[in-house]
Design brief:
heterodimer; A: alpha/beta; Rossmann fold; two-stranded antiparallel sheet; 11 helices; globular; B: 333 residues; alpha/beta; 2 domains; 7-stranded mixed beta sheet; 5-stranded mixed beta sheet
Chain lengths: 330, 333
């Protein structure tokens, strides 16, 4: 068993206009949602810390296309992109981030703990590998229900150094559960380069260590992510057991808003700006003449209007009443 | 109590509770180490794999955090897991999952997510198992909001409380005691459950109230037999569940006896006895004729040497001394 590297071919870029519109719409939705969140944070609308997903949008978008509402998902505090890709309502996301009663968790979870049962979102997590075994447990349910559901778990490179990641992967492997482990390797575990934290060149080796089929994919190329997502979801849905995906990507902003980013150079960040997922997608779509620049701009504007509308509505949402302190404890 | 009662062990009573609940609810699964073919190191899951099969009785690797988390995820998505930690000391390996994840999910999700999971485990010393296999850790769990804590002291309670735990809808830490597994008691054949938050007055008395849990209840029972012979009438209350805690029964008793001794095997310092003591003095200060006394383990790791261990754990001598202090009298030994 070896790591498999996802290579894209010409046909992988050959998508319908309609598909291209959907992908562009999701990529821009996530990007603009995150940008708006930063503005909201600056305005003091959020508590705590904000961990932007900017630069990694292709991963959530590419995977999201192949999962359904009935599939389970766990993610981390950098998880609004994953939520949007699973169909979350931007208004309810913003409202939750602002701690309001209309938020997904009535304002009691916040940006780090967004959850929604109807969408199979079992929760974003404040502990980097904390959601991974939970997704494995959801995989146990999926297997016992036998209805072709999969359970996906998003986490970062840093999570692969927590013990429970290894325990969960081994458990999924021996129980042959329909779990898709998605490691978004954005090169930094909080403020420390992953290369200083682990000797493996590819984190996919860690999936392989548990005899889980493991893939490495360019996480900034939505076409490549779609390719691996299709493979992985088919494999897991058909009862073959878990899959591990290492999506190599780059966090264009700091770990959280306000991060000094002294651990990397501006040149390095700039070099990745050219490779970032929205730019890459746009370039390919224009090159192959699938959509025009006008069409892309039109979609982008439509998305922005929707996000702005959601943001403004969320700001108007009520604060939870004091009684909420004591509800939902047990 | 029923007419159709038998005498069975604490372990058998627990086994019956799981067996009966699994028979009527096919969402229940059991996860843990050596719980399948082997039947659990204390025989609590004996025979379950033969009846319910490998799909529902799942032997796990030695990965406490992993299978605790998997249990939580399964609970969140519609199954009803009973997760066994072979020794309570091992829960420390899985605390993030139990306390950061399981205990907080319902709250963090604004009530959308329920986590109906029972963590079964056993604690307590007295067997020379040393510092990492003898602890009484109920206070740790009782301190964190979002998880209920059950500490049965006898076979009847073990069965009735475990059935209630399995039917509950939130995370439960169900703490058994290794030295109680082979103790016997009367258990009816008929179906019954015991509600949480309902203390059990084991012996009524008028001179002093003693509150305890788990194996310490047995030690207290021996002590009050001795006291009775010396003309002292002690009321013994088994609090049964720490979360929720039936403080009403304790306060009513203190209003009658005016004196309170709390006995537990958990370390005395920062133990749940301090919490109960604080509640009682808050509510019933005017009824107290003496300061409340706590008897717990000494604030040291549990030593391996059996003679030293006896000194560290609460013993009859220390309980009697505490009672003498609240009664301002010597009862003699």
């Amino acid at each position: 068993m070896d790591i498999k590297f996802i290579e894209t071919e010409k046909e992988d870029y050959n998508i319908t206009k309609q598909k291209a519109e959907l992908i562009w719409s999701k990529l821009t939705e996530i990007r603009y949602f995150e940008e708006t969140s930063i503005e909201a944070y600056k305005q003091g609308l959020l508590g705590g810390s904000l961990h932007p997903y900017i630069g990694q949008e292709a991963v959530a978008t590419g995977i999201g296309e192949f999962i359904n509402e009935s599939d389970y998902m766990t993610t981390t505090y950098r998880g609004r992109g994953h939520a949007l890709a699973k169909g979350a309502d931007p208004f309810k996301l913003f409202a939750e981030m602002f701690g309001r009663i209309d938020g997904y968790c009535k304002g009691k979870g916040g940006p780090m703990h967004i959850a929604n049962n109807e969408l199979g979102m079992l929760g974003a997590n404040g502990i980097v590998a904390g959601g991974i075994p939970i997704a494995v447990g959801a995989g146990l349910t999926a297997k016992s229900m036998n209805q072709g559901q999969v359970s996906i778990t998003y986490f970062g490179d840093g999570a692969t150094n927590q013990g429970v990641f290894h325990e969960a992967m081994n458990l999924a492997a021996i129980l042959k559960l329909p779990v898709i482990f998605i490691c978004e390797n954005n090169l930094y575990s909080e403020m420390t380069p992953i290369k200083d934290s682990v000797l493996n060149e590819h984190l996919a080796e860690r999936g392989l260590a548990y005899r889980i089929p493991s893939y490495v994919v360019d996480g900034n190329d939505v076409f490549a992510v779609r390719k691996v997502a299709k493979l992985a979801t088919e494999y897991a849905r058909n009862g073959n057991g878990p899959v591990f995906i290492e999506a190599k990507t780059y966090r264009l902003l700091g770990h959280m808003f306000g991060d000094t980013e002294i651990y990397r150079t501006k040149e390095e960040v700039n070099s990745w700006r050219d490779k970032e997922p929205l730019k890459q997608f746009k370039r390919k779509i224009l090159e192959s003449d699938i959509l025009s620049e006008e069409k892309l701009n039109e979609i982008e504007q439509k998305v922005k209007n929707l996000i702005d509308g959601a943001f403004n509505r969320a700001k108007e949402s009520e604060q939870p009443s004091f009684e909420e302190v004591y509800t939902d404890v047990y | 109590m029923s007419t159709n009662s038998r005498i069975i062990t604490y372990a058998e009573a627990l086994n019956e509770a799981i067996y009966e609940e699994m028979s009527s609810n096919d969402k229940i699964i059991v996860l843990g180490e050596d719980i399948g073919e082997y039947g659990g190191v204390f025989n609590v899951t004996k025979g379950l794999i033969e009846k319910f099969g490998k799909e529902r009785i799942i032997d796990t690797p030695i990965s406490e955090a992993g299978f605790a988390g998997a249990g939580i995820g399964a609970a969140m998505t519609g199954l009803k897991p009973i997760v066994e930690f072979m020794w309570i000391d091992f829960t420390f390996v899985a605390l993030d999952q139990i306390l950061n994840q399981g205990a907080k999910m319902t709250y963090m999700s604004g009530g959308q997510t329920k986590v109906p999971i029972v963590f079964r485990t056993q604690g307590g010393g007295g067997r020379g198992n040393g510092a990492q296999h003898s602890q009484s850790l109920e206070t740790i769990f009782a301190h964190i909001p979002g998880i209920k804590v059950v500490v049965p002291s006898n076979p009847y309670d073990a069965k009735g409380l475990l059935k209630t735990a399995i039917r509950d809808n939130c995370p439960i830490m169900f703490i058994e005691n290794k030295l109680l597994y082979n103790t016997k008691g009367v258990v009816p054949e008929e179906e019954y459950t015991i509600p949480f938050g309902q203390a059990n007055i084991i012996t009524e008395g008028s001179d002093v109230t003693i509150v305890s849990i788990s194996r310490s209840v047995q030690i207290c029972e021996n002590v009050i037999e001795d006291l009775k012979a010396k003309g002292i009438s002690a009321e013994l209350i088994d609090i049964r569940t720490l979360v929720p805690m039936d403080t009403t029964t304790v306060i009513e008793s203190v209003k009658k006896t005016n004196r309170l001794v709390i006995v537990h095997e958990a370390a005395e310092n920062f133990g749940w006895g301090s919490e109960l003591s604080s509640i009682v003095q808050d509510v019933a200060f005017d009824y107290l004729d003496a300061p409340i006394k706590r008897v717990g383990s000494l604030h040291v790791p549990i030593p391996y040497n059996l003679e030293l261990e006896k000194e560290v754990l609460p013993n009859e001598k220390r309980i009697i001394e505490a009672i003498e202090e609240v009664l301002y009298t010597k009862v003699g030994s």
